[in-house]
């Protein structure tokens, strides 16, 4: 009996201890629950919404808040517009002879490409004429003027004599012998110097605009006529045979019987 009483007392003590520990854990959970709203209120905008809480409770883990994404749109490349220097001379587009000569060439014409390279460097072929017609001379700063002019001079000297003459003619630059002080046929150095001076301050030559000569028009019209298909001429009529009867040769008629015949004796 004493053993049974001792065992029952031990069981009651263990039961009391378990209930006490459960009460302590329940109190701790209640304290955490009471402090949670204060923390969430302090966090402000970071607090999850009611829907997020419901989903987190159903899944058993907190849901990550997705950030808004913005699609990357590449910026369009800005077209670099050519800056035409404001020089001291006349614009090529205001020179009638130059404008007329520019109308006879295309971007693929060697002298036009060479002129653009000397003035502007590398560029787009579709803008060769547009930029050159706006050009009215170089405008370098005092610090860079000498070095830049040296670069232009080197570009000019790389040209052959015939190429240099074609470019000067395109720009309507006078290169006649009488226009030089030496009064002699100008060489490449003389032409290069004049071309460089003109590039620094372009001026119209003042020559009258040449019109197409009558000989040139006639030659072009004759060339066009030569290209035109020739008309076939109608077949010639057969020659008519001569209708006149041929004259018969007259033969000597025999003498009459009554006619006297002289017989040599």
Descriptors:
single chain, 265 residues, mainly alpha, 9 helices, 48% helix, elongated, disordered C terminus
Distance between the termini: 227 Å
Helical fraction equals: 40-55%
Largest sheet: none
The sequence of SSEs as H and E is HHHHHHHHH
Number of helices: 9
Calculate the mean pLDDT score and round it.
Answer: 73
Please tell me how large the radius of gyration is.
Answer: 57 Å
Shape descriptor reads elongated
Number of strands: 0
Residue windows where pLDDT falls under 50 for at least 5 positions:
36-45, 212-220, 254-265
* Main structural class: mainly alpha
Binned strand content: under 5%
How would you describe this protein?
The protein is mainly alpha-helical and 265 residues long. Helices cover 48% and strands 0% of the residues. The termini are far apart. The model is unreliable at 36-45, 212-220 and 254-265 (pLDDT under 50).
Brief synopsis:
The protein has 265 residues and is mostly helical. It has helices at 2-43, 50-59, 96-102, 110-119, 128-134, 145-157, 161-170, 188-200, 214-227.
